[in-house]
Structures are given as structure tokens and as C-alpha cells.
Amino acid sequence: EACEDTAWHSIFHTLTWTGLRRSELLGLRWKDVDLILASLRVVQSVQRLNTGEFIVQEPKTASGRRTIALSPASCLVLREHREKQEADATLLGRQLAEDDLVFSHPDGSPRDPSTLTLAFRRLTRRIGLDGVRLHDLRHTMASLYLEQGVNPKTVAERLGHASVTITLDLYSHCLPGVQEAAAVQFDTAMEQAKSTSAKMTPELVG
Q1: DSSP for residue 42
Q2: Assigned architecture for domain 8-131
């Protein structure tokens, strides 16, 4: 909410809602985003070398190349972002293409990854959350998913982890609450099973 009226809103929203790494976000092209089917594909990342040169890299592992489902809220944010990007491109005498980066400068050139980190640091300091890192947005998504009882394998796939073991090692602190909820749900399921069995017994006896 703190960045909702800023130019960074669509970037920080997408990072939080998808759990993408910074380099993966900056490598997204519009042809990798399907706002009708509500999904995006991670197929490349953008890195900036010490020389100032930008390079495009494919995911290092098969799990890094993945498809991520988008929530309705994320689709809305990305639609609004695209409309603004199209307007900016028109002002510069160019048309937005499907090969264009989703999060770029108005002229279509890649963003420096460090500018995202600096902007986020300024934002968190302004609202009294100094010390919270940009990468913590990824951790927030994973933690909330696990606390809501989402299968760890699903979370691992969303994060692009090579193994669910990595996810469990990183976020095991989120699981105690999940296990407590599962225990309560099991009680409920057993009570329902007993009730169903009691109703069926007279029929079987008769």
C-alpha cells in the first residue's frame, strides 16, 4: 500500500505476489505474460555486469524455467501497467511489442537491478521498516503460502527451487502453525466420517 501511488507499485506488487527473483522480473517480456489465462512464464533473467553491460540469461536449472499462476489482483495491476507503458511508448514514437520487457525504461531499455533495491530501501525507511530487503518480498510470499496450508511442493515450484527440500529447509519455521491447523482439520474429517458411518449402519443392518 505504501507504494500504491508511486511508479514502483507494479514492480513491487509483482515481486510480492509471484515470488520472482529480481533478475527474473526484469527479464519478463510481454510475450511471457498471459493476462487471459492469468499466468506468466519464467524463461530468462536480466543481469547487469560490472562493465555496465546488460546480459540475458536462461534459467540455470529446469525448475527455474516455470509457469506461475497470477491472481486477479496481479492481472489488474499488470493490465494497468501495460496501458501506461503503451502510452509512454507512443509519446516516444514507438509501439509496444510482445518482445518488449514488461518492466523497462520508457524507451524499452532494461532497468538496472540495483535501482529496484535502492527504491525499495528508500520506501521501507520512509515507512519505518528499515532493514527489510527487496528479497524479503519473495520470502513473504512463500511464508504466507505455507501458513495458509499450501502444499510445500507447490510453493517450491512457484519459487523455482530445484527440490522441495530446499523450500522446507528455508521455511520450516512456517510449518508448525500449518501442522496445528492440519490436526484440527483431521479431527473435523474424522467426526464427519463417524457421522456418515453412523447413518449408514442402520441401513446395513436392516
Answers
A1: E
A2: Orthogonal Bundle (1.10)
